[in-house]
Amino acid sequence: MPDVPSSLPRSLQDLPPRWAHFCLGIERFVAEELGVELAGKRLAVGFSGGIDSTALLLSLRCLTARGGGRIVAAHLNHRLRPEADEDARWVAALCATLGVPCVIREADVATLAEDSGAGIEETGRQARYALYADVLTDHGADFVALGHHLDDLAEDVLMRLARGTAWPGLAGMSGRDDTRRLLRPLLLTPKAELAAFLAELGVPWREDASNEDQRWSRNRVRASLVPLFLRENPSFLDSVARLWRVGEMDRDYWGVQTASVGERIPNAVLSKAHRALRLRLYKAALDRLGSAQVLSDTLWGLDRAWQAHRVGAVFQFPGEKTAVVTSHGVVFSAKH
Amino acid sequence: MPDVPSSLPRSLQDLPPRWAHFCLGIERFVAEELGVELAGKRLAVGFSGGIDSTALLLSLRCLTARGGGRIVAAHLNHRLRPEADEDARWVAALCATLGVPCVIREADVATLAEDSGAGIEETGRQARYALYADVLTDHGADFVALGHHLDDLAEDVLMRLARGTAWPGLAGMSGRDDTRRLLRPLLLTPKAELAAFLAELGVPWREDASNEDQRWSRNRVRASLVPLFLRENPSFLDSVARLWRVGEMDRDYWGVQTASVGERIPNAVLSKAHRALRLRLYKAALDRLGSAQVLSDTLWGLDRAWQAHRVGAVFQFPGEKTAVVTSHGVVFSAKH
């Protein structure tokens, strides 16, 4: 197990100027683009011990110290790899040196996945988010901060493109999710900068060998697709950041346009609306009935039925949600 | 030189039912999604002799025959490859059999490129579009039809993503361009279907060896990226078609929202507008001063300056276009 340094920076003053500046850049991104002031906040930090979350924990430790903020680390031991217990001990040691409380939970993800029939990746994800939700409540935290960075965002955009995600979802994961109270402060920071930050501080990190496993779609995207895009455009990561900004802007725009939508969308609203707005109104109505929903072919079918006044036409959506064309407009409902 | 068949279909009745249906599907796409009725139209057809444009010429020959439409083929001999003259003779022979007039022009693209300093690809493109513009005028054609298909669209989307094109440009090339009077009837048809169509009719096509040349970015995207996306999602081409439809819808939406924009956008308009609309208003004002302009970082800078009331701030855009923040709003101008 690599040694945790005997002392670690706990405030911006402890950092070399370049890296204090780096942390302030993260703070500015979170303030200006995600709308959250970090100073003085209570944050939970998802901390795997990998490069991303180690850099996140260190930068947030320094940034939240001002204004009396507090952070707590949350680590899930997935018990998937032989070195998982060592990872957990390393995580605990680093948090102790940093003066950050640390919640460590164990979950036998392989067994859980077998029992539920869900994949290992998905089961691990669910177990992590359950831990985060508990830590948010137990520690009265405002957000749980996650270590996703610009390279992750690029992979996410490529995976969404492959899967057929429409706009604005195609622009990638959100920087802030108020429903699950997630914050992604490093989302526009390239991974290479995180590595340079940790190298400067002499902080090692834990490598996750499963990141190399080409059976996972995400790892294939990382190993094969991203390098090809970088070959076509060495500034590809900048392009992804720019696309994400346009996506966030358009997400907000459509959010404003559909803010007042309910389970019934009257003809008076639909007949004034451009199809681009109508489809987003349907989508917003469905989202309000539970979990996200892409701009699917079914939404287009619903819109064609509405346009053709096919009163009584019924459309089924995932999550047992239903839309019906009535003589007054379109009505959405869910079984639950 | 492969033989041109001694007879070729000139109407839907000459086609096997499955392929008549295939042609009617193209007609329906052009009518419903591009807003153009093919029957009775006068069309120029860009005809290289390759698989795409050979399939396009054959299908349009059958579709336009009804209602007294007429087509004329336009072929540019780029004089880049040893077989270029043979290609041109083959093109002339096929048109003769099909009963379609054919305009063949020669351009020494390599020399032109050397003289102008532009790349060979770009010079060839310009020479082709100059030919199309002349044929449009000389033959009084409504549109020039081009053979771009769904595989081309997928490559285009990936190249735009690599380059950092924002939304809705990211969704790929338009199916219809009224400024240059272009029409792309095959844009949502997979290349494999075009090959099957030609195989059924026993029509050979000319292979362009330069399509294999990995020095061209487009060929690298075709050979490396598209197969990887197909590995992640075997229905990737369907995803691209769906994304394109959302893009066309949003393009139209923003077109409607910015329809009345002029060279001066008053504060009264800007202060009511969401940033997503303000950026599209700026873009529309710039587009009206000449050629397209992506949602660049400069547009964001302009918007920040407008928000901060930085009266007198000047922003330069490609094509010698300028935007100035004034006390009344934002004013756009071009040197010419």
TrEMBL record, chains A, B:
Q: Name one GO molecular function term.
A: tRNA(Ile)-lysidine synthase activity
Q: Which reaction does it catalyse?
A: cytidine(34) in tRNA(Ile2) + L-lysine + ATP = lysidine(34) in tRNA(Ile2) + AMP + diphosphate + H(+)
Extract the CDD domains matched here: TilS_N
* Residue ranges of domain tRNA(Ile)-lysidine/2-thiocytidine synthase N-terminal in the record: 43-223
Q: Where are the transmembrane segments?
A: none
Domain of life of the source: Bacteria
Localization, per the record, is: Cytoplasm
Q: Which UniProt keywords apply?
A: ATP-binding, Cytoplasm, Ligase, Nucleotide-binding, tRNA processing
Q: Which Pfam families match?
A: ATP_bind_3
Which InterPro entries would you find in this protein's record?
A: Rossmann-like_a/b/a_fold (IPR014729), TilS/TtcA_N (IPR011063), tRNA_Ile_lys_synt (IPR012094), tRNA_Ile_lys_synt_N (IPR012795)
Q: What are the BP-aspect GO terms?
A: tRNA modification
Question: Which residues are noted in the entry as ATP-binding?
Answer: 48-53
Recorded E.C. number(s)? 6.3.4.19
Kindly indicate whether the keyword Ligase belongs to this entry. Answer: yes
Q: Family, per the entry?
A: Belongs to the tRNA(Ile)-lysidine synthase family.
**What's the record's remark on domains?**
The N-terminal region contains the highly conserved SGGXDS motif, predicted to be a P-loop motif involved in ATP binding.
Q: What does this protein do?
A: Ligates lysine onto the cytidine present at position 34 of the AUA codon-specific tRNA(Ile) that contains the anticodon CAU, in an ATP-dependent manner. Cytidine is converted to lysidine, thus changing the amino acid specificity of the tRNA from methionine to isoleucine.
PANTHER family, per the entry: TRNA(ILE)-LYSIDINE SYNTHASE-RELATED
Entry protein name: tRNA(Ile)-lysidine synthase
Native organism is Pseudodesulfovibrio alkaliphilus
